[in-house]
Amino acid sequence: MDTAVPDTLPDTLAELLPTPLHAQCRTMSVARGERLFHTGAVPEWMFFVAAGEVVLERPGVGGALLVLQRQRQGFVAEASLQSARYHCDARVTLSARITRIPAAALRWIAMLNGELRRLRQQCERLSLQRVQDRLLHWLATAPGGRFETTAGGLKSLAAELGVSHEALYRCVARLEASGQIRREPAAVVWVRDAHPKPPTGVRRRTECKKQESSP
């Protein structure tokens, strides 16, 4: 899969990493089409792209591949340091020069992971066309699969989803009627048993009209 490169670390990486960590890193050449990791694998390394290109991807709505990150120079899959498993594939799209660093030695960037994950989820969510898919994506990635309506109500959620509040109200009513969500006095809750797979990876039976989604 890869060929070790008897070379020093890329300058930008050497400046960033503590000197004692340099000896634990390995630089390699990786051919186009190879994968640095697969969905479901346990994260053991952080990968730094010095040349070439790597994309993070996973199936999206309708089965089309959704690109979560495209990197030509810098780290990939930083957020995975705090995950038990990878939730995407890392595919080399241009033959690349990659340095891998032991993940256990990089926990010092863990404080950045929460915000990074949130931003990537927001980008993924806004790429979805239907109100329904955006709402189910939000609930599937939220703690407890729920949105608390006590602060700002559904209007604040509509703004975060990038849709009109009227479109969101109609969608909530339809999803509640179909059993995909339930309303509580102060929350909207995703009914996980109704759809065991994440909503971004499958096509739902009940659809909100495409025209309900704002540009």
Structural account:
The chain is α+β, with helices and mostly antiparallel strands. The protein has 2 domains: 112 residues, Jelly Rolls (Sandwich); 85 residues, Arc Repressor Mutant, subunit A, CATH 1.10.10. The chain is 25% helix and 28% strand. The strands form 2 sheets. Strands 1, 2, 3, 4, 5, 6 and 7 form a 7-stranded antiparallel sheet that branches. A hairpin with a 5-residue loop joins strand 4 and strand 5. Helix 2 runs antiparallel to helix 3 and helix 4 crosses helix 5. The longest helix is centred in the middle third of the chain and has 14 residues. The chain is elongated, with a radius of gyration of 20 Å. The C terminus is likely disordered. This is CRP-like cAMP-binding protein. InterPro entries: cNMP-bd_dom (IPR000595), cNMP-bd_dom_sf (IPR018490), RmlC-like_jellyroll (IPR014710), WH_DNA-bd_sf (IPR036390).
Count of distinct structural domains = 2
In DSSP terms, counting alpha (H) and pi (I) runs of 4 or more, how many helices? 5
As a percent range, the share of strand residues is 25-35%
Average per-residue pLDDT, rounded, comes to 79
Helix content: 25-40%
Radius of gyration: 20 Å
The CATH class of the largest domain, by name, is: Mainly Beta
Helix and strand sequence: EHEEEEEEHHEHHEE
Could you please say which CATH topology of the largest domain applies here?
A: Jelly Rolls
Largest sheet: number of strands, sense, barrel closure: 7 strands, antiparallel
Low-confidence stretches: 196-215
> So, the CATH homologous superfamily of the largest domain?
Jelly Rolls
Number of beta strands = 10
Morphology: elongated
Level-2 CATH architecture of the largest domain: Sandwich
First and last CA, distance: 42 Å
Helix/strand structural class: alpha+beta
